[in-house]
Amino acid sequence: MIADLTRSLSDLLTQERARFLAEHPRSVAMAKAAAAHWRGGAPMHWMNDWASPSPIFAAQGVGAQITDVDGKLYDDFCLGDTPSMFGHGDASVAAAVADQIKRGAGFMLPTPSAAIVGKLLAERFGLPLWQAATTASDANRAAIRWARAVTGRPVILVFDGCYHGMVDDAFVVLKAGGPAMKPGLLGQVHDLTATTRVVPFNDIAALEAALAPGDVAAVLAEPVMTNCGMILPESGFHEALRRLTRDAGTLLIIDETHTISTGPGGYTRAHGLEPDVFVLGKAIAGGVPAAVWGVTAALSARMDDARARIGPGQSGIGTTLSGNALAMAAMRAMLSEVMTDAAYARMLAGAERLVAGLRGVIAARKPLWSVVHVGARVELVFADPPPRNAAQMRKALDHQAVEALHLWLINRGVLIAPFHNMMLVSPVTDDAAIDRLVAAVDGFAAAMGEIN
Questions:
Q1: Domain interval for residue 212
Q2: Global pTM?
Q3: Cα 353 vs. chain centroid, distance in angstroms?
Q4: Domain limit, last residue, from 338, 368, 403
Q5: CATH of residue 326
Q6: Whole-number pLDDT of residue 405
Q7: Do residues 105 and 58 share a domain?
Q8: What pLDDT is recorded for position 177?
Q9: What's the structural domain count of the chain?
């Protein structure tokens, strides 16, 4: 039966790949030409992670839609995997960026916008003191380095299945019951498990045991796991996480790069979390590369003490582009004009419509699927009930079925995030686009029902 299913899924994929290649001649030709100078035919290898047999070359994005070079229009529920969460080509950001670029992109000096952005960040997210970075990867690395400097401890704790950007310390998973470096990790010469501890998400007892030795500088966590399939925190988990870290003298770093979809102040403000460090990247500058990280006043004072204790020299934190004038102009526009309560209300209403539609498909077609969401971010999980940790999610993840769904959607004019079944609703996503996505998923469920 499993072999028959594999052959049938393979047949479906073969048909969908042939359809894609026939309907995207210009993208296919561009990929072949680009391959002469870009490895794999694209400027960044993640652009080859889509289910399509050749990269889709985008011509433009407007609102919540993308047009490719073959003239095909897509309803975009990927939105750049979050940087364009509020829509492509936002007029406020475009005007701010256009004005600033004429006056200079970066000076290695603060601008008037920087003072305003700092105030807006503090008001919105609740932490009083901030620093800028170019990506969330940079921000997380800075937070980890400061945590070690402040506490004098070597170990970082993460949750199995996490992803926090290109941060070496986070590339550790649970394998056969113990810590191991992630499979496929390139060029890593040091054993990361020596200074990174990993436990399952939602496992309070494992968390307490991992903190017990007193050598953990910081826990780095998303409030909702979103990078191994969406995994929601169980009741009481965040309260226990904060209590246990405080009891252990361990700092808590909350990475809201994805969960900013929850509301104007992120999951942290919506659920009353109390991180020592708050990290946000991607959407904060509307697609202009930028990130920010904020700290409590108490931690800031400890950072000053650590700096004085260590003495002068290079901190190893920061890059020349961090906090540049262009990014500050974009962040100012986003925080004051785009990331509004009204925009979030539209996003959340759209997400509720999408969740209801997908659950309607599941109720009618009866696949063993479920729907999980946080704010405007929605995940279709090929398991019911939804997994509570990464180990369960790995067992549920059928890579061939995921590939088939993604390619099916692409061929029907819908884009979702390429890494698993994650969908993001923007404030400019209209109801008709949501309904088209639901109809396409329904068609896929029907096709899968025929296979089964």
A1: 91-338
A2: 0.96
A3: 22
A4: 338
A5: 3.40.640.10
A6: 97
A7: no
A8: 82
A9: 2
